[in-house]
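Narrative of activities, Objective 1.

The group set out to show that a structural description can be obtained from nothing but a protein's sequence at a throughput compatible with the screening campaign. Below is one input-output pair from the validation batch, recorded exactly as produced.
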Amino acid sequence: MTLQRHGIPLSGLLDGSVDYARFEAVTPIEVRHAGGLGVLRYRSSIDVSIEGEPVGHLECWHLDVYTRGDDGRWRCPWSQATDTVQD
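Output recorded for this entry:
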């Protein structure tokens, strides 16, 4: 299940109607780091609800790229999640 493919509006993340009721890493989080760049890879288990009602379960591989800004703070400009559950 992916949010858009199943008619779950991504705008709901902004207005609060879509909630990640559960977002949990289910594998160790692998980290690679060099200078101001960090990359994380892990698999997660996610339960999604809309306005409090459960609507689906996702299992995804994630690849997140973090960069360190001039202020020293880390930010994630890129994140990729690949659904591993067969619908």
